[in-house]
Amino acid sequence: MIVQTAEDNSPHFVITMDQHTALSAQFAERFGNERFAAIEPRAQMLYIIGHHDAGWKELDRMALRDPATGLPYNLVQTPFEHIVATSKASPDFNGATHPYCELLSSMHSWGLYNGRYGMSDKLLLDSLADENRAIADDMLDFEIERQDRLKASLIADPDTAPWVEEAHLMQNYKQLQFFDTLALYFNCVPEGERTETRFDHVPMTASEDTSIDITPVEEGRYALNPYPFDDDDIEFDFAGRYLAPQIDGESVGQALETVSAETQSLRLVAANYS
Question: Of 11, 17, 80, 200, which has the most beta carbons under 10 Å away?
Answer without folding.
Answer: 17
